[in-house]
Design goal:
Blueprint (H helix, E strand, L loop, with lengths): L1 H12 L15 E2 L2 E2 L5 E4 L22 E8 L4 E8 L4 E7 L7 E6 L6 E7 L3 E9 L6 E11 L4 E6 L5 E4 L4 E3 L5
Parallel strand pairs: 1-4, 2-10
Antiparallel strand pairs: 3-10, 4-9, 5-8, 5-10, 6-7, 6-9, 10-13, 11-12
Length: 182
């Protein structure tokens, strides 16, 4: 027991307990937009609160510890931001071009051990920030990713008929995954 306390004290004094670089939006971790969920692991245990909690979190009577991420889009991707807690539950909130209450777009929570997911459709070109925080008083470990898919090809003629018996035109259902790095 004494050895465990000595190790914990040493870890604390050597900077182990310092907040990570993405504790504030100015140090937001750069995320790639990809066709498959290439997860980045993170934690809010050493973070501080940078903004009040969002409405989707419900009533929280404690200081939320948040971690920040950012991505850039050229406006041609259908964006899907995901975060899955390793344990516990979390809130995922998205902001446009600025990481303050004026830039707030939307938020969701993971409701138990499920995935928090914001399906945003095509966002205008720009830089977007998102933050993750725990719905519990401690912190949360999680995996996060940003998916981007863009439809390609000209509209294709469909062999389907509408209700009046006329041929209708639909966009080809094939999709091409887009990749954009920050």
């Amino acid at each position: 027991m004494l050895l465990a306390n000595v190790i914990l004290c040493w870890l604390w004094q050597t900077g182990y307990a310092q907040a990570p670089a993405n504790d504030e939006y100015t140090g937001a971790g750069a995320m790639n937009i990809s066709a498959t969920c290439t997860s980045v692991a993170g934690s809010t245990f050493k973070c501080t609160q940078s903004l009040p909690q969002n409405l989707c979190a419900g009533e929280i009577s404690y200081t939320v510890k948040d971690a920040w991420y950012k991505f850039q889009t050229d406006g041609s991707f259908s964006i899907d931001v995901k975060a899955k807690p390793v344990f516990g539950s979390l809130v995922l909130a998205l902001y446009a071009n600025t990481a303050d209450e004026d830039g707030y777009i939307s938020c969701t929570n993971s409701q138990g051990d499920g995935v928090a997911q914001l399906k945003m459709g095509v966002l205008p070109a720009g830089t977007y920030y998102y933050r993750i925080y725990s719905t519990g008083a401690g912190g949360v470990k999680y995996n996060t990713c940003v998916l981007g898919v863009v439809p390609v090809g000209p509209p294709q003629k469909s062999q389907d008929l509408n209700e009046e018996g006329e041929e209708r035109f639909t966009r080809d259902s094939s999709l091409r995954a887009g990749m954009l790095t920050v």
